[in-house]
Each structure stands twice: as C-alpha cells, then as structure tokens.
Amino acid sequence: MARSITAAAKRKGQLGAGEIEEMFSRLEAARPAPRSELNYSNPYTLLVAVVLSAQATDAGVNKATRALFAAADSPQKMVALGEEQVREHIKTIGLFRNKAKNVIALSQKLLAEHGSKVPASRAALEALPGVGRKTANVVLNVAFGEPTIAVDTHIFRVANRTGLAPGKDVLEVERGLEAAVPERYRLHAHHWLILHGRYICKARKPDCLSCPIADLCRFEGKALER
Fold it and tell me: Do residues 133 and 121 touch, judged by C-beta distance below 8 A?
C-alpha cells in the first residue's frame, strides 16, 4: 500500500515553521512522556552512564552498570571501589579502560571541587574528565530539566534527513535545532528525536511506512510501498 507524498515532502531544504510544529505534535502524540533508556538513580549515576555510553549501546551500558551502580552510586563509593574494579565491571563495553580511568578521575574532581555533587553548569560539566558537550547536554536535560538538545548520531541523521535542522557537523545541527524547535517542545525534543532515529529513522533501512512524519520529511530515499 502506498502512502501519499505531499508537495512539501518533495521540496528540498529545511522544514517550515508550521511543518516543524506538526512534526513535534505527532512525535509527542506517539510518545507523550519520553525518557532516557539509560538506567540511573541520581544525577551522578546518570553522568557516569552517559560517559560510558560513548560508542556503546544503551542496552550494553545498562548491563554493565547494573552491578557497578549496586556497588558504587556516588563519587565517594566509586573512588573507594577503584579503577581496577570499575574496569572489571565495564569491560564488556567499548573503550572500557579509558572510560574506567575517566570515571575515577571525574569522581575525584566532583569530590574535590563540587562537594560530591554533579554541577548544573555546562562549563563545569565539560571540565570533568571524559565529559564533552553532548554528555553535558544530556545531563543538563535529564537531571536538571534544561531544554538542551544533545546531538548524537541518531539526532544528526534525523535532523538532516527530515530537513528539520540540516547541518554539516553536530554543533551546526545543535544550533539549528535550538532555533527551529518550538519552545513548548524543547524539553523533550532530544528524546523524541533520538528514539525516532533509533527505532524508525534507522541508518541503513529507515522504516518509512511506520513513520508518523513521513509526509513532512524531505528524505529523497523514502520507501513508502510494501
């Protein structure tokens, strides 16, 4: 069965404001209360989980952190656990040696400079070992309710494919999203877009027939027939 393609979907370039409003209205209807798929119990375990998630799946991180967080869910406990034990807990995920080193180092810095608390400041977060802009944006959004958008590979793909916020690099896409996403959708935009990219707008074979925004999307390679 074919799905009709509107004239707007045939045009190249960025989506218009009305189309973007409609896009997020539909994403909201599909997932009214989106949340991170990483398991965490407090801002600290969220921070560690996001640091560990670089070049790893959320499912893989959750498997590794189940026992790790049972043993250490605070900077004090993590430092006491030690790098060798952290390494043992996370050895099933990519770059585990360097990540274990960063987890201990960022925990030490939280103890020394932030009273063991995760800071709610982008600059302070990015000053922590192993924390870049994407990780800081996730923590600010999930832990502190800031309307930030962390551009990962899924969001980068969705923003470019759909015409929502085309850009050549992650910072350009992030700035484009900040300008394009209506304020009322900004808080959850990160999760709507990442989940859409993870489960529908997949890299190799997007599931266009199941896509709630296929008629708005600018992607020229849409597969709309069975």
Answer: no
CATH fold of the domain at 43-144: Endonuclease III; domain 1 (1.10.340)
* Residue 207 designated active-site: no
Q: Judge whether 152 counts as a catalytic residue.
A: yes
What is the CATH number assigned to the segment(s) 7-30+149-210? 1.10.1670.10
Check residue 101 and give its pLDDT: 98
Domain ranges of the chain: 7-30+149-210, 43-144
Pairwise CA distance, residues 75 & 94, whole Å: 22
Summarize pLDDT for 160-200 with one digit per residue, the tens: 999 999 999 999 999 999 999 999 999 999 999 999 999 99
Tell me the C-alpha distance between 153 and 198, whole Å. 9
Q: What residues in the chain have per-residue pLDDT under 50? A: 1-11
Spot the catalytic one: 10, 12, 134, 215: 134
